[in-house]
Amino acid sequence: MTEFSHAFRDDLTRLMAWRRDVRRFRTDPVNEALLAKCLDAFVLAPSVGLSEPWRVIRVESDTARAAAMDNYQTANARALAGYDGDRATTYAGLKLSGMAEAPIQLAVFCDDTTPKGAGLGAATMPETRRYSVVGAITHFWLAARAHGLGVGWVSILDPDRLTRDLAAPAGWSLVAYLCVGWPGETSPTPELARIGWEQRRTTLPITTR
Hints:
alpha+beta, NADH Oxidase, 13% strand
C-alpha cells in the first residue's frame, strides 16, 4: 500500500478546496502538452465494470461553438423566466458560462452502448456508467487545478440539442460541457456563496437506519 505524507494529504485537501467552477477566463491559449497531461487523468479514473464509457468531443469550430452558445443563451433565458423578484434580479446578474472566453471547450459524453466491461455492474444500474463519467471529470478537474488551469461546467443547456449539433454518435448522452483555461480571477469562496445565492454546508448530513 502506498503511503502518503502529511504534507501531501494537506495539499490534497487544499486542492479540493480550491477546485472551483470557473466562469471567468483569460483568453490566453493553453499549451497542448499541458492539456494532454490533464486529460490523462481520465485514463486513471475508475469505472463500473472497467467500461471506461467516457467520450470527449473537443468543440473548436466557429460553427460548433456558435451552436453551443446559442443553446446556452436559449436555455438561460428559459431558466431566468422561472424566477421572479429578487431571485430573478440576482440570477440575471450571474455569469453562468465562460463559453465566450474559454480557449478550450469539451463536450463529455457517456457511451451507453459500449461493449467494454460486458455490462458488469451496469446491467442492474445502467446509470452507473454516467456516474463513472462524472468521476473521471472530477479526476480531470483536480489535475487541471493542480496545474493552475480553471474548469467550468456549463449545465444550462439542452443536452439533446447539443448532442445533435455536435453530431455525436447514437448511444452517446451528454454528461458535461466543460470550459477550460486560465482563470481570470481566484477566490477561496464560491461565487454563489459570495453573492448570497446559497451557502455551503460545513458538515455532512448523515442518516442512520
